[in-house]
Amino acid sequence: YLQDSRSDQIRNTVREFTLRNDYSFFNQREKTGLMRNIIIRNSSQDEWMVIVVFQHEDESRIRDLMEFIAGTFPFITSLNFVINPKVNDTIHDLNIRCYSGRDHIFEKLDGLKFKIGPQSFFQTNTAQALELYRTALEFASLKGSETIFDLYTGTGTIANFVAGHAAKVIGIEYVEAAISDARVNSALNEIGNTMFFAGDLKDVLNEEFIALH
């Protein structure tokens, strides 16, 4: 119910192309096969991000598929690919390559603009995320003088959302690319009372850090 019908068009068309052209598919047990998975994200601003995940390098096949996707779906805002030879499917520590368009998309929540990169977490159900943030803000009953710690801040969505209701907001996140986006998002919305730090929470959030902030 959440996915736009164009998501099905993209994934089914990619499936047909790779089957027709004898691309190999990743086998979790054998750890072999080129085609691993595909990530499709879209925003309420009608911006689309597609990330094709390959298991290993294959320059000609990767080029052919990416060119096919770009030509078939010109509405894609950000077309990317990544090589993931690991056992797990996470891509936050890998080199994402932007094939066409820009390397990010934008989303809007309650008048705030958010930049979302390929390695950045953002709530998949944007409309419900807005209700979630509003409810959290209501429960917090902020007076405007508080310092807020937004742990696992991602792209700083909640941090920036509550910044206008607090004295200062500190966001901490493990993924450095997400923290870069969080800082950009504060700048985009002219928010000046946020600070973002990249690192493992158990290392960053120590007594000295808490005392400092």
Summarize this, please?
By secondary structure, the chain is α/β, with parallel strands linked by helices. It has helices at 5-20, 59-72, 126-140, 157-162, 176-188, 201-204, 207-212, and strands spanning 35-42, 48-54, 78-83, 97-101, 105-109, 112-116, 147-151, 168-173, 194-198. It has a four-stranded mixed beta sheet, with helices on one face.
Any overview of this molecule?
This protein starts with a helix and ends with a helix. The model has no long low-confidence stretch (mean pLDDT 95). The radius of gyration is 19 Å and the shape is elongated. The protein is an alpha/beta fold and 213 residues long. The protein contains 7 helices and 9 strands. The strands form 3 sheets. A 4-stranded mixed beta sheet has the order 1-2-3-4, covered by helices on one side. Strands 7-8-9 form a 3-stranded parallel beta sheet. A two-stranded antiparallel sheet has the order 5-6. The longest helix is centred in the first third of the chain and has 16 residues, at 5-20. Helices cover 35% and strands 24% of the residues.
Topology:
Blueprint: H1 5-20, E1 35-42, E2 48-54, H2 59-72, E3 78-83, E4 97-101, E5 105-109, E6 112-116, H3 126-140, E7 147-151, H4 157-162, E8 168-173, H5 176-188, E9 194-198, H6 201-204, H7 207-212
Based on secondary structure, the structural category is alpha/beta
**N-C termini distance:** 42 Å
* Strand order in space, largest sheet: 1-2-3-4
**H and E string:** HEEHEEEEHEHEHEHH
Calculate Rg over CA atoms: 19 Å
Please report the total strand number as a whole number. Answer: 9
The mean pLDDT is: 95
Taking the sheet with the most strands, its summary is:
4 strands, mixed
Beta-strand fraction estimate: 15-25%
What is the overall number of helices?
7
Helix content: 25-40%
Parts with pLDDT < 50 across at least 5 consecutive residues: none
| CA-based shape | elongated
